[in-house]
Each structure stands twice: as structure tokens, then as C-alpha cells.
Amino acid sequence: MGPVEALVQPLGAAWAGALLVSGLAFRRRAWLAGFTSLCLAGGLWLVGGTPFSALLLARLERPYDRIHPVTLPVADAVVVLSGDLQFSARELLWFSTGSSFERTLTALEVMRQGKAQTLVVSGGPFQWLGNPRSESELLASWIRTWRLPSGDLQRLPACRDTHEESVAIGDMVRKRGWKRVILVSSALHLARGAAACRKQGVDVLPVGCDFQGLDALDRPEHWWVVPRSEGLIRFERWFHEELGGVWYWWRGWI
């Protein structure tokens, strides 16, 4: 995407508009309005036009970089945290995948490598014909239908967030007498997810995927004249995870 194409995108247009407002305000000696608009334009460019947001995400992802299933010890189960699909009544498979579907693919690959005999999937709640259901049902049905390597496939109940997942994982681990599980999630989310599970007394081996920050830094282009929405999305994911970590700490969940 060139500078001209980026300018007609929402973020690029907002950045250009802030610069224009700043220039007009300074021309009319409206210093406060001009400085405010200039700061807004600068913030948009910092997030969307530089490697700043990728660096923030990479800091969360780096501890889980290049952890390959071959190097993992055998565990009792592979547990994949939810967040990678949503119910859709219009799709043939009854779900649509998000940017984090690597979680499921990575968990299946770990199972294919023979690192556990049980795969545990999770999912959020949804309503179908007035009845509460769990997205884990959709995921488990797809895995069985395609005959993917899942061993003893188990589902967690519908979980609204990582805390509820960690409580359900802890209950399952104690009920089945498991000693250790492999926990799969997006690398930026693993620190909070693993800490929440350990708070429930679960010994976890974290395996990361969906490396958005590190992958962005590996690309040759890091700087753009006009900011792009990819940087804003990365910043939002980083901010969500940092704020979530503070909230979980305050609630005593990690």
C-alpha cells in the first residue's frame, strides 16, 4: 500500500485531518488547538507509522519465541485457550475463524507430535434457537469430522474470559489427576493465561503462536510516512493485554 492509498484509509485520513487542523489553528494563532491536533497526529503516526506497536507486542511474545513441539516433554493433555473462532449461522462449519486461529492449529500440531493423549478445547458462550451453547462444541465437532489428531478430545464449559477458563482447567486437572498440561495460546496472551492457570494449581508448559509483533519486526518495512491500521490493531492488542494483566492482579486471579 502506497502513501496515496493509505491516505484514503480511515487512519490515514484521520492523521491527515489532524495535521490540517493543526496547521489552520497555528495560522490563526490558536496555539492550544494547534498543539492538541499536532499531538494527535503525532500519536497516530507513532502507533501506525513506526515499529513502536510491534516492539510493544514483541516484548510480550519474546519469552515464547521458537518453542518447538519437538523440544517439549510429554504432558497429560494439551489445552488450547479460546478466542480464535466465533459462532456463525451462515458458515458451512457453523463458525468463522479470527486472527488467532493459529491457537487451534498449533494445538493440533502438538498433538500430532505425540506430546499428549488428550486435547482440551475451550470456547465462549453463544445462543442458538434460544439455548445457551459453547463454541467449544463447534470446534470439537470440526476436529472430529475432519479426523484431526486429537486423541481423547475433551471440552471445557462455555467460558467468558481467561479466568473462567483457568478455573475450569483447574477443575478438570484435579478431577483427572493430571500432573502437567501444555497450554497453547497467542504468545502475547500466554503470560496472563499461564499465570491464571498456575493460580489454580495447574503446572503448565506454555506454547505460543500468533506472533504478530515479532513477525512484524521480521519484515523489511518498519516505517511509513502515512500511518497504517495494522499498527493501531497491534497497539490495541497490547493495551488490552496489559490492562487485563493489571485487572487480573487486582482481582487476585494471577
Question: What does this 3D model show about the protein?
Answer:
The chain contains 10 helices and 9 strands. The chain is α/β, with parallel strands linked by helices. The chain has helices at residues 3-7, 10-27, 31-49, 52-61, 102-112, 135-145, 162-176, 187-199, 212-218, 229-251; strands spanning 77-80, 85-87, 95-97, 118-121, 125-128, 131-134, 152-155, 181-186, 204-209. Helix 8 links the parallel strand 8 and strand 9. The strands form 3 sheets. The chain has a 5-stranded parallel β-sheet, sandwiched between helices. A two-stranded antiparallel sheet has the order 2-3. Strands 5-6 form a two-stranded antiparallel ribbon.
What would you say about this model in short?
The protein is built from 10 helices and 9 strands. With 254 residues, the protein is α/β, with parallel strands linked by helices.
Under the CATH scheme, the architecture of the largest domain is 3-Layer(aba) Sandwich
Shape: elongated
Quaternary: single chain
CATH topology of the largest domain: Rossmann fold
Q: Strand order within the widest sheet?
A: 7-4-1-8-9
**How would you characterize the largest beta sheet?**
5 strands, parallel
Strand proportion: 5-15%
User: How many domain units?
Assistant: 2
The count of β-strands is 9
What level of helicity do the residues show?
A: 40-55%
CATH class of the largest domain: Alpha Beta
- Rg over alpha carbons: 22 Å
Unreliable residue stretches = none
**Helix and strand succession?**
HHHHEEEHEEEHEHEHEHH
CATH superfamily of the largest domain: HUPs
